[in-house]
Write a structure and sequence with these properties.
The complex is a heterodimer of chains A (113) and B (111).
Chain A: E1 3-6, E2 11-14, E3 19-21, E4 23-26, E5 32-38, E6 44-50, E7 56-59, E8 62-65, E9 75-77, E10 86-93, E11 102-103, E12 107-112
Parallel strand pairs in A: 2-12
Antiparallel strand pairs in A: 1-4, 3-9, 5-6, 5-10, 7-8, 8-9, 10-11, 10-12
Chain B: E1 4-7, E2 10-13, E3 19-25, E4 31-38, E5 42-51, E6 54-57, E7 64-70, E8 73-78, E9 87-94, E10 101-102, E11 106-110
Parallel strand pairs in B: 2-11
Antiparallel strand pairs in B: 1-3, 3-8, 4-5, 4-9, 5-6, 7-8, 9-10, 9-11
The chains are: A mainly beta (113), B mainly beta (111).
Chain lengths: 113, 111
């Protein structure tokens, strides 16, 4: 079956530090890959996505590249801000018309001033 | 106004009680989902509906039921609540492509 493994948190960084959150997946076929973010007290919202190998998703200074050879979709940001403190979820959707998402367990990021 | 709303936002109930969580959306999407979030476990799919007449079980449907009253409304019921159903519940919608839009969540405590 499909699965997503992401690095366990919590991750604590100082403002302006570099962020990497690792995500690897197992899936048959050609899934689409996503990063969702959950700010405190809110629902999840899409941060970025990539639908095929070598695509790079980007948004709000965050980036992730779909690496089929390593089955990875690591999230990166060059300089984090306090407002980036949230829980980050990696997810996949199988190829074809099945749009059920499989989520990783989430990584809590705390950015200190 | 929010595109996906959930009521109630918080609920405390007792073991054995029947409760209903409601979800409404103004996005005009056909597809709606119910998820459960437990600390350290990510989100697990309970039920999903691709249109009013199409309802499907997800990974963890036991102990839950759903009703799709209209395109815009999708309710989740716990027929007889038990303490291990204490969790954060999210409703989501999509328009047939992959991005899902989530409501703010309902925090449920079963005593």
């Amino acid at each position: 079956g499909n699965s997503v493994t992401q690095m366990e948190g919590p991750v604590t960084l100082s403002e302006e530090a570099f962020l990497t959150i690792n995500c690897t997946y197992t899936a048959t076929g050609y899934p689409s890959l996503f990063w969702y973010v959950q700010y405190p007290g809110e629902g999840l919202q899409l941060l970025l996505k990539a639908t095929k190998a070598d695509d790079k998703g980007s948004n709000k200074g965050f980036e992730a590249t779909y690496r089929k050879e390593t089955t990875s979709f690591h999230l990166e940001k060059g300089s984090v801000q306090v407002s980036d403190s949230a829980v980050y979820f990696c997810a996949l959707a199988p190829g074809g018309s099945n749009y059920k998402l499989t989520f990783g367990k989430g990584t809590l990021l705390t950015v200190n001033p | 106004d929010a595109d996906v709303t959930q009521t109630p936002r918080n609920r405390i109930t007792k073991t054995g009680k029947r409760i209903m969580l409601e979800c409404s959306q103004t996005k005009g999407h056909d597809r709606m989902y119910w998820y459960r979030q437990d600390p350290g476990l990510g989100l697990q799919l309970i039920y999903y509906s691709f249109d009013v007449k199409d309802i499907n079980k997800g990974e963890i449907s036991d102990g839950y039921s759903v009703s799709r009253q209209a395109q815009a409304k999708f309710s989740l019921s716990l027929e007889s609540a038990i303490p291990n159903q204490t969790a954060l519940y999210f409703c989501a919608t999509s328009d047939g492509v992959e991005t899902q839009y989530f409501g703010p969540g309902t925090r449920l405590l079963v005593l």
